[in-house]
Fold each of these.
Amino acid sequence: MTAHLTTVAGVAVDTRHWIGGARVASAATFTDVSPVDGAALGEIARGTATEAEAAVAAAKAAFPGWAATPRAERARLLHAIADGVEKRIEELAIVETTDNGALLRSHRRGVMPRVAHNLRFFADWLLKLDHEDFETRGHTNHVSWDPAGPCVLITPWNAPLMLASWKIAPALAAGNTVVLKPAEWTPLTASLLADIAHEAGLPAGVFNVVQGYGAEAGSALVAHPDVRRISFTGSVPTAKTIAAAAAAHLVPTSFELGGKSPLLVFADADLDLAVDLAVEQYDNAGQVCLAATRLLVESSVAEEFTRRFVEKTAQLRQGDPRNETTDIGPNIHPRQLEKIDGFVRRAIAAGARAVIGGHRKDGQYYAPTLLTDVAQDSEIVQEEVFGPVLTLQTFETEEEAVRLANDTRFGLAATVATGDQERAERVTEQLVAGTVWVNCFFVRDLQAPFGGSRESGVGREGGTWSFDFYCDLKNTVTSPKGRHDHG
């Protein structure tokens, strides 16, 4: 082993940046710590404006060649990267679990296979991406998707590699080059992906990884004049800072910013299904942007719903995410744990009642919590906690349910539990959300648009919507006679 390698659960991970097809060290490092047991995982190269400049320069230099690469070859290389991911699913799974605390069984069976699927989906979508030509007074209009240029992708820590692949795959498929800045709390699988992409034959400079601490590298990347697209998943305040930097060069941005999503449970719902949906919101220790953290339950069934919910939640096993039987792992970082606990303590001080939970446990674990007696305008109802904390409010009418559901500054998702199809249609038409699930949760097809309304985001990802963002759309108008004819 060298000074630039660390070993995580037997897997060697290079802790340097990946820029221009080579490993690049930094003058300084930062320590990556596992939320599972607090163990130091390695000293990570700490990027600054110097590394950001080098990465954008590498992406800019590689762009003409990659943009000119035929679609079929770009698709082949994305499939080759997906092959590499599938060969290393076990390694990627254990490294990411150790780095971010999510369940190992989920990484093995769902998350890492989904990374490969994301790459394959956009590779295949690229090959069928087309728009039917149309006529205007005898002239032919042809729409094409031109690569935009170097893209900066900034990804979060709650599902590091999967969320990165949602951005990387369409950006590369579209013919752009990429600079990825992973979250500082979870940098390791991005480094492994750089190795996989290199082994697959991706040309130097097409995919670059700059690791940062705080805003040092990220600020330089989003303000760079040679960057042509910025995609960010994270907090609203950071998005506003990025938007201001991007505005200086009129760089298009795509933001997915989390939310405060509702789960509406009507009296005619299958109550066991509704309870299952509610308990599912504790997935990944509540660190899911789409989580329906506000349970809105019709008054006539609220008592029975709560009884079944408490009974079901008691069956959850919280502990080491590497154990097959664990249902809830740790929260990501001591700072995040303190934030979660602060929300709950302030809510209880303001009159909320903890039906279950409401306290920290040993290490970086927070007990699954359900709070009732909360006011609609309270902090705990209005602000994103990003932990295993749900609130429960009741409603009397369908109109009240919709009003409560929409009464936040967010609009990422909503879930509706009802046995009445007509009601489902009425309610979903009125909900402010980028995605609405009816009697289900977290069913995500990459053909569908994904994104948020209000302060939950800007833009949509998925299918052609991703290519619309990562490309400059061009319309070519051709006269069949070769004459100058306008109007």
Amino acid sequence: MTAKPSGPPTGTSLARLLAGWLPRQRWFGGKDGPIDDLAIATAVEILPGDPALHHLVVDVRQNTGTDHYQILLGVRRDLPEALEPHAIGRVDGREHGITGYVYDGAHDPLLTRPLLAHMADERTIGPLRFRRAPGTGIRTDLDATPASAEQSNTSLIFGDAYICKLFRRLSPGVNPDLEINLALSREGCEHIPAVHGWIELDPAAHAVSGPAPDEPVTLALLSEFLRTATDGWHLALTSVRDWLAQPLPPGTDGGPTPADAGEAGGDFAAEAERLGAATAAVHRALADAFGVTQAPPGLLREIVFAMNEQLDQVSAAVPELRPYAHAIRAVFDEVAAGAGPLTFQRVHGDYHLGQVLRTETGWTLLDFEGEPARTPAERRAPAHPLRDVAGMLRSFEYAARFLLVRDAGLHSPTADVLEQRAQAWAERNRAAFCAGYAAAGGPDPAEHAALVRAFEFDKAVYEIRYEAANRPAWLPVPLRSLARLAG
């Protein structure tokens, strides 16, 4: 059955249609302002016919900056009802060889299956290069289903074999997720999924400028799909839910303690300790693959300057942060004045419970792309490994309080007790993670407490900026834990 989409406009230019469609997408990074201009920079036909698949790179100008997005554009003469939610509109004028109903082709299995075949054959189509990882084979008989999780990219799951991440917002050069996964694979690291292939764009085809203009631009990464794995965020939330539902011991007057949290059903501390050990193992492999450097004099002061700059920007935009700004700045200044020699290396860069999977054999780390709001240079720059540790410690705080915010527990008659319970869970699992990390050879967080605290504050400020711009309903989660961190 086919139907004409009633919502999207028809008979208008493709660029105008895309300008109306892009801001409604979860992965669009410019929701906080209008689109000033949109231009189609490259348009490549990957699959002719009906349906057809076109690959687009669009340049989106907002304020004084320009971002670059990739779109898998499906084109059909008639649009099936199942694809109507993904419709963009109708093009009547045959722009870039396109006429008919256009839609997000990532949701059409007939259009995504050819991506596997092209990677398996290592084809080149115009400026698009399809690559297969050395020593691997790629099945070509699988249809894709887009993952349903909220993401800043789009992930296509091919049967039970592969997951293909489409990088929607493009960065200059090789994406750190591909660069790091390939390097860790060469090191034999057992805590990452295997890389099977990727797609890249010839840098001569588009001015996605960067420090290495001859580097291809990474468009997609095809990795092993860990079908039986469960992500750390959902495992942690299950543990928190069980703990919050436990009755208090008789006679309790001082609130629950971290030890009490260990007596609840579904205790997470053993897994947190194993995750700490896996994190240390990946950090060692990253050091072996990319090397380590001694931070030169003044680098830490530059890092603290950037932390203070972000704090100023976010405080100006989010008034709820301002009461804590003085305490945060004092911690930053303490680190700048007192830290000794530090060793820097490549790190994960955006480490939290949603970036790890628990498999039957242990923990696996994912998504080495770095924080979405950081510049490409910041994502690829060496850092202290305790920055990742601080990111995971923040994630335990998030997991502890997320259910309270979602279920309005912060405003319930038992809000104080629930907050104490959440904090007890967070403290127990933070301590277990740090113990596992140090025992496996990572720098002991307890011996660098001020540095970890500064990294935690910086991460919390980043979280507040991100939530205020993208998920305002989640803003109380980092604010609540920030109140505790700031004393």
